[in-house]
Amino acid sequence: MTTHKRLAAGLLDQAVSSVLTQDFQDFEFIVCDDASTDGTAAYLDAVAATDKRLKVFRNPRNVNSVAISLGRCMTASDPGRRWVSWMFDDCILLPGALRKLAAAVAGRDLGMIYGITEVRQPDGSAFRVGDLRPDEVRARIAASSVLVPNGGILIDRTVFDRIGWYDPSIVLRRSCDWDLFRRIIDAGTAFEVLPDVLMEEHGALQADSLRNAFTTTFDLMARFIAARDASGLRLSLANTTSMPIDWIPPAAWTPQDIGLMQFMFVEYFLSVGDLPRAFRWARSLEAHLPGGNLLRQNLLRSVSEGGNNGAMAAGAYAGIMLGAFRQHRERLGEA
């Protein structure tokens, strides 16, 4: 599990407790603290001191990437344990979930199994992920990112040797799980679906969750994946936890495509406080906007002068470029 600043809201304690109180207890639980500043470190250390199944490590700086943080968890995991599972800090694993999953894979030649996740909505309703039959999932996985849940799942670790890991590319941040599940299923991996609700997800209720805070389109992600696959990029665990994340594979991209991807890069690097890289990609966005903006010109002048004021101006410039590009897309009817 990866977590970032979910302690105050009570979500982290609910998530961790839901795992450690499972009636199936033969597991290791690895949590990556993504540089939280809200007391998460002290909380996790206190829990780990009382339950040796919990192992905690921390990213030295926030990476805001499921692919990278969970990849580090995977690297730290016991290779002798065949089955791998994960969940996120806005989820609750329901009682008996691990027992049901473990019983279902016992003695069977499966690569993946999962149950149903209920995703809670702001209006009090919930929609279900993981309730379709395997044949329906195989038929629809290329066109839908909400068929396989992000928890209440077991995957044979040898599957990752064949298929690879999450792609950490910024363009895929919103649905890197869909890309991974699509590759697993398209490779002919045998999998089953349990009819039980095994997990609740509360991410839709959090303003800073990926589903609410990151810009993308499904069409762009699908075309990015096709271009990536054509490039022959290796998605091994070692490569995906060290490769550049702000790359664009060769393809017949339109100027609108390039602009949107550059916008995503600015959005991401601002979210993790990497102002130099946010500024670099914000400068690239200038080519997509009308010139002559005096405020942007003044900020660029401050950046060129350097010093503390220059660093602050770089961040301000990147933030203003996000707003300007967003308004530009709205005027063109692209948003």
Q: What would the keywords be for this entry?
A:
alpha/beta; 6-stranded mixed sheet
Question: What's a concise summary of this model?
Answer:
The protein is of the alpha/beta class.
Give a verbal description of the structure:
The protein has helices at 11-20, 40-50, 66-76, 97-105, 134-140, 158-163, 176-186, 210-213, 218-231, 237-240, 255-271, 275-285, 294-305, 307-332, and strands at residues 2-3, 29-33, 54-58, 83-84, 91-93, 112-120, 126-129, 153-156, 191-201. Helix 11 (255-271) runs antiparallel to helix 12 (275-285), helix 12 (275-285) crosses helix 14 (307-332) and helix 13 runs antiparallel to helix 14 (307-332). The strands form two sheets. Strands 4, 5, 6, 7, 8 and 9 form a six-stranded mixed β-sheet that branches. The radius of gyration is 21 Å and the shape is globular. Helix 1 (11-20) links the parallel strand 1 (2-3) and strand 2. By secondary structure, it is α/β, with parallel strands linked by helices. The mean pLDDT is 93.
Secondary-structure class: alpha/beta
Instruction: Calculate the terminal CA-CA distance, rounded to whole Å.
Output: 33 Å
Global shape: globular
N to C succession of SSEs: EHEHEHEEHEEHEHHEHHHHHHH
Distinct helical segment count: 14
Average pLDDT confidence is 93
Low-confidence stretches: none
Fraction in beta strands? 5-15%
Helicity, as a percent range: 40-55%
Q: Tell me the major beta sheet.
A: 6 strands, mixed
**CA radius of gyration:** 21 Å
The number of strands is 9
